[in-house]
Amino acid sequence: MLKFVANISFLFKDLTIPERIHAATANGFHGVELLFPYDDPVPPIQQALSATGLPMVLINAPPPNYAGGTRGFAAIPGAEERFRYDLRRTLRYARSLHTRFVHVMAGAGSGDDARAAFVSNLRYAAAEAPDRTFTIEPINQDDMPGYFLSDFDLAAEILDEVGAHNVALQFDVYHAQKITGDAMAVWSRHGHRARHIQIAGLPDRHEPVAGVVDYPAFFRHLESIGYNGYVSAEYHPANGTEAGLGWMPRD
User: Fold this and answer.
1) What residues have CB less than 8 Å from 240, skipping those under 6 apart?
2) pTM for the whole thing?
3) How many CB atoms lie within 10 A of CB 149?
4) Which residues share a beta bridge with 60?
């Protein structure tokens, strides 16, 4: 069976963060991820993870100020010191929460200088924390206008250029569909690079049910190829989290 993760920045939002972790295990999830844990005290999160046995699978690297702030610094030329400063903070949280995956946000940018900065910063991160896996995620321009990494072919080129065993693709089916109009074709080309998958329905980023993307077929495909990573539910529930969990296969 696939290992499904609850993105608790999106799901169970009527609860506190520790309560969301307990709700995730009660509803059959195999782990949780939290985009930006930086404003929440760590001990209650640690206690909830310990009590439930769930791993904190992924957090996002800088910035901690997501609302209204720059969407990352990794592809911004001249912001290398800011990136390194914020990365150190991210790694403190990752180690405290025993988090394996760190999503490195590129930020807004374009051109060769932005690409060079992104590659350099990813190499720095990979060397700084060889015990973590850093992921890069193409994000569509409708949701994040100006975001540097909005192309899967570019992501593949960057991964090859970085050349680090602990830097990999984060494949978000929602973003792949928005960017290309055919998420499964993108998966066929680049899925072998993915170490973490995120899912949401189209077009409104609600539950990942059959529709624009045939999610039941995608889940069967992942099982058939022996995918052993996590699949994260990163969507806005249409009518409450628990009411919409019928999409998730159960053990």
Assistant:
1) none
2) 0.96
3) 25
4) 103
pLDDT tens readout for residues 70-95: 678 899 999 999 999 999 999 999 99
Query: Cα 146 from chain centroid?
Result: 19
Our answer to whether residue 137 is catalytic in this structure is: yes
Considering 80, 161, 223, 234, which one is annotated as catalytic? 234
Is 242 part of the annotated catalytic residue set?
no
Q: Are strands 230-233 and 31-33 parallel, antiparallel or unpaired?
A: unpaired
**pLDDT tens digits, one per residue of 150-164:** 999 999 999 999 999
Choosing from 33, 137, 161, 223, the catalytic residue is 137
Residue whose pair of structure tokens reads 């409104």 in the numeric block:
204
Residue 219: which region, alpha, beta or left (left: phi > 0; alpha: psi -120 to 50)? Answer: alpha
Cα separation of 28 and 71, whole Å? Answer: 32
Q: Residue 158 has which token pair?
A: 């960057």
